[in-house]
Amino acid sequence: MSKLEQTKGMFKLVGKTNIEKIETKDFGWIQKTNMSVKTLKDNFVQVLFESKNGKGMGVKVKGVDDKEATKVNIDGAVDKLKTTFTNDSMVCVMGVTEYDSYNKKMTIKPSGVYSSNSDYDQDDFEETNFVEHDFIFSNYEGKKATVLYVSFFGEVSELEFSVSDELDEDFKSFKYGDCLKVVYSIINKPNYVDDSSSNFVPKGKGVHNNGKRNIDGYIEDLIIVGLKDVIKSKYSRQEVRDAIEEFDKKQAEYKEQSKNKVETKKEDVNSNTTASEDDDLPY
After folding, report:
1. What percent of the chain lies above the pLDDT cut of 90?
2. Highest mean pLDDT among 15-24, 158-167, 201-210
């Protein structure tokens, strides 16, 4: 049994959504719905509603006129959200975080979507874009921290985060195996390109450069902005190595068992087949 504990996280976002346009994509055994939360006028965070064979984490929904939140099943969450909110609605979205080992990125999955009184058009608006998560510290170099994520099944994955200047000295003091509870923000904003940088030079009176900005891709980053707790020397390098080897061994055993089941099934089918003069016919 691995000595590494699962690293868990939760998030809170406030902003406007693209709720009117979202659609669920059905991949057969899994259904996925991506919703964008605009935490600032130019920062867009993606949250994922996901169900497997129609089952998944339920979602609490509370509209502006609701006295209490209503919990809906994951397969009915999108319809409920569309009847409760519009693209102009300010919402507070809360939930849990997971690491997607296939796409190699963190995902955030909502457990609640609530009406919010915040408004980023106001001068005193402060962005709410925080993920609180446990990680195992691995390395820090050039304002980049390498940390380890441990899944429920014991898989160990390596991630890289940017670190804010205010936490530079803290991260320089950490050692491999320290357990950190960090707070990070998700950056996903357009890379704007000014049209004035083009080679085209307009001529003639009445021609003005309106400063229109074109988008050339997106700037994506995860930046650690706070520390909630630090447990020094919680794990050794050997304990991490042992956990990785244990998970790999279990994966190999599972693949071998699956292979044997398939071969056994083929043998059963062949043993129950009676040869006849029609066997060589194409159909």
Report:
1. 67
2. 158-167
CB neighbours of residue 190 within 10 Å: 15
DSSP 253: H
Alpha-carbon distance of 245 to 229, in angstroms, equals 28
CATH 2.40.50.140 occupies which residues in the chain? Answer: 7-125
Would the pLDDT of 98 be above 90? yes
Q: How far is CA 23 from the centre of its chain?
A: 18
CA angle 76, 79, 81 (to 5 degrees): 105
Residue type, 194: D
Q: How far is CA 133 from the centre of its chain?
A: 12
Distances (CA, A) of 171 to 7, 130, 160, 221: 19, 19, 13, 18
Where would I find the H helices in 85-127?
A: none
pLDDT recorded at residue 282: 35
How do strand 105-115 and strand 25-26 relate by DSSP bridges? unpaired
User: How far is it, in rounded angstroms, from Cα 79 to Cα 88?
Assistant: 17
State both tokens at 213.
């900005």
SS3 assignment, position 226: strand
Beta-carbon contacts of 22 under 8 Å, excluding residues fewer than 6 positions away, are: 33, 34, 35, 78, 81, 82
CATH of domain 128-199+212-263: 2.40.50
Closest to 26 in 3D by CA, of 55, 51, 57: 51
Superfamily (CATH) of domain 7-125: Nucleic acid-binding proteins (2.40.50.140)
Q: What is the pLDDT of residues 81-95, one digit of tens each?
A: 999 999 989 999 999
Residue type, 210: N
**Cβ(132)–Cβ(181) below 8 Å:** yes
Q: Tell me how far apart the 2 most distant CA atoms of the chain are, in Å.
A: 90
**Radius of gyration over every alpha carbon of the chain, rounded to an integer in angstroms:** 25
The backbone torsions φ and ψ at residue 115, rounded to the nearest 5 degrees and listed phi first, read -65, 140
Phi–psi pair at 260, nearest 5 degrees: -65, -40
